[in-house]
Fold this protein.
Amino acid sequence: MIKTFKIGGVHPAENKLSAEKAIEVLALPKSVFIPVGQHIGAPAEAVVQKGDQVKAGQLIARSSGFVSANIHSSVSGTVKKIDIGPDTSGYPKKGVYIDVEDDIWDEQIDRSSEVKTEISLDSAAILAKIQDAGIVGLGGATFPTHVKLVPPKGMKAEVLLINGVECEPYLTSDHRMMLEHGAELVVGVQLLMKALNVTRAAIGIENNKPDAIEKMKDLLAGQNTISVMPLQVKYPQGGEKQLIKAVTGREVPSGALPISVGVVVTNIATTFAVYEAVQKNKPLFERIVTVTGKSVQNPSNFKVRIGTAISQLIEAAGGLPENCGKIINGGPMMGKAVANIEIPVTKGTSGILMMPEKEAKRRAVMPCIRCSRCVSVCPMGLEPFLLMTVSEKQIWETAENERIMDCIECGSCSYTCPANRPLLDYIRLGKGKVGALIRTRKQ
Amino acid sequence: MSTIIIYTILTLSMIGILSAIILYFVAQKFKVYEDPRIDRVEATLPGANCGGCGYAGCRAFADVCVSRGELANLFCPVGGNDCMSSVAGILGIETTKQDPKVAVVRCNGTCEYRPKTNIYDGTMSCAIASSLYAGDTGCQYGCLGCGDCEVSCEFDALHMNPLTGLPEIDDEKCIACGACVKACPKTLIEMRKKAPKDRKIYVSCRNMDKGAVARKSCSVACIGCGLCQKECKYDAITIASNLAFIDSDKCKLCRKCVSVCPTNAIIELNFPPRKIVAAEIKPETSEN
């Protein structure tokens, strides 16, 4: 039987419209805006000044703490200014504006397409390279990878899990990555295993991507350290805790990190970035972005320089469809609607989705009918209807006791609610409040 | 037959008397002393249980008043000075009078002045909207218009105006409990000193962007130019992070700042029409 996680989950229409489209390199933009805070943790500090000449791959903002990441220029050209710019949230964020001139890369970077399989570095050196390259979790959470790869004292990693699930509907960037860069990914996995000092690794792939499963199996034939694990299609299998449960059967305790059960999870795109950083000396300044939507003329997977405005991606995919009602940064389940199409692609941008007006509209909210569907689909075993009510009534103590902080914000509850209740909206609000309360209590 | 009835009555009475005796001693043993003044203070309080004093209802407030024995920093906004002086009377102490206050909304970004840049169709709650993004206009500091303040008002004093999309306060009904101040995620509502005849002068903006940026998103935004500060003789106006603020304790309601403001961000309310006023207003301002 094909494995999956046990509690909850939903199965939204997959709509992987761009699954057959090979990765295209997007034309260089005329100018880029690279925010200095593209990751969880402290924003990086800019190290360039107005008027400086930069090359692609050059460090432009240095990590400002342990949980932080370096930012590199994605293009060559002149620094126009360091100022605030647009962001998905609507709140302006600080970043570096660069006018693009030519396409000169840093001399250190190996630009050949040849796959370099030989691993010459030791664990510490690999970690240092990952940290220098500013690699963060590219699945969307953007947690700095070098922090994840150093287990806290007293804990030891046993298994490395590679997340090739891509359970979000519409998104296909990881799928294409496995098909087109499988060999590099294998090296990436070996590098991560060496960095973590583990002997076993598994790649979890949902079985709606049989070609990717076959490709990875072919590449990994004849060795028994890395296995490919086909998984049943179910959302949110790409969630760290759900993937661990599905592949290893281990359950991460409430409030604990995956490392507490000896597992470290990284995403496919992150693994590829690790390969490029270690073997090719290439910092993270490009990523694959799926641009898609039902009425989009040409749904595609683009290789994009960080800092490119999303308007350019939309243009390249055939322009904004007439009936477009909402543009989402990310997938339809967890992505955020954007208020401005001049926002830049950042390290965490996995897709740009254009929803037709009819589908994008929220339906009228009706009273809860106590059908308990939200409870049965919650992958964390929570009671969303209760959490929503206590958040609405601002009873933060109960919210905390009902484990509101365990919510992974997958949106399965809101998706499944027959009364269209905004469950996740209120839970997210409660999480923010309870999180703030916990932080003040700790101080 | 009658003996059974008599025995029954006797037995039950005995049980009753015995229990009463036990209960009497138990009550003595576990007696909790409560100051009788708490009840009297609570009786003088309005009983709105609004939490405007900062405590969980009138009983809790009365408890604090009595246990502290002084009324510094304790004030019931609903009852006002009269209520507080009778509380002071019960406690046998003096209290200082506080100026009555009134809530003021510091955003004038109507659809006309502050065009919408996107449509928000999510849950009608300012708390949720602000947790998701900056808002449906170019101004990240302005009113979101979902009406959390209206819901929070227990006194029917605050209503959303459907034409402007902004809340409006009924000065007659507002008792300055401060519930709306807490409800607004953008901290737009401020408690200001109530002036005679409900006259008000305030900067109706919270935009802390640089002037050009602020002006671009809203035509009546404060651009922090400082003209009002120069004009003010009473040092009532301060400018911080590109935003002017008029201190209601220092303001003498002379209205000079209103006329110099290039963006009309300073609002005057409940004043008689200009020119005639210049002579008339003087005696009143001296009272303040």
Q: What stands out?
A: Chain B has eleven helices and eight strands.
